[in-house]
Amino acid sequence: MTEADPDLLARAQLRERQGAGARYDAPNAPADDLLLARRGTAYFARQLNGLTDSELDAQSAVAGQSRRHIVAEVAFQARWLARLAAAARLGFEVETIVEPELFIEDVKLTATLPPHALRYLFQHSAVHLDVEWRDLPREGWSRTIISLDGRAVPINATPLMRAQEIWMAATTLGGHWRLSDIPAVIIKHSDIADLRGSAASGA
Predict the structure, then answer these.
(1) Which of 55, 59, 95, 138 could form a disulfide with 26 if both were Cys (CB 3.0 to 4.6 A apart)?
(2) CB neighbours (10 Å) of residue 76?
C-alpha cells in the first residue's frame, strides 16, 4: 500500500456516506491546496466571528487599514477567483463580468458597510468560490484564464493563491491567533518576522 491509500479510502467512504447529490472536486483538482484554502477560510471566519461589531472598526495589524478593509479585500479576492474559475468552467479564455452595471469593487466604500453586511459579504464570497471550485470539471483545472488586468492565471494555482491570502489576512485581522496555528507552507512563503510581530500583538 502507498501512503496515499488511507486518504483515498477515507474520501471514498465520505462520498458513499454523503450520497449522490453531493458536490465533489474533480479528480485532478489540487486537493492539498484546496484543503489549505478551505482550512484558511474556516480559520479566518473564526477570527472574524470572534470580533464584536465595535472591534471590527478598529485598526488591523496593517498600517493604514482597518479590520473592515481586511474583510473587504478578502471578499473581493474570493469573488475575483470565482470569476476566473467560472470562466474556466464555461470554456472562456478571459475573465468575464456577467453584469457590468453591478460590478463595483471599491474596498474603501465596501469597508463602510454595516457590520452584518460586511460579514455576509465575506461569507457569501467564500461560499461562491468554493462552489465554483467544486463545479469545475476536470478540463477546467488545466486551463489558464486572462484576468481583466491582463494577467495569465493558471486555474490550478488559484487554491494556493487563496490559501496564502486568507491565512495571512487572518493574522493581520488582529484577533487572537497563534503562530503555531499557521500551516508551515504558509509560513515558508511569508515574512516570518512580520508574522511573529503580528502574533505578539494579537495574543
Answers:
(1) 138
(2) 17
Q: pLDDT digit string (tens) for 42-85?
A: 999 999 999 999 999 998 877 788 999 999 999 999 999 999 99
User: pTM of the full predicted structure?
Assistant: 0.82
Report the number of distinct structural domains present in the chain: 1
Identify whether 58 is part of a domain.
yes
Phi, psi (rounded to 5 degrees) for 163: -60, -45
Whether 15 is in a domain gets the answer no
In a domain, 165, yes or no: yes
Asked, for residue 87, whether it belongs to a domain, the answer is: yes
Summarize the confidence of residues 108-124 as an average pLDDT: 95
List pLDDT tens digits, range 145-157. 999 999 999 999 9
pLDDT in tens, 6-46: 555 555 555 555 455 567 899 999 999 999 999 999 999 99
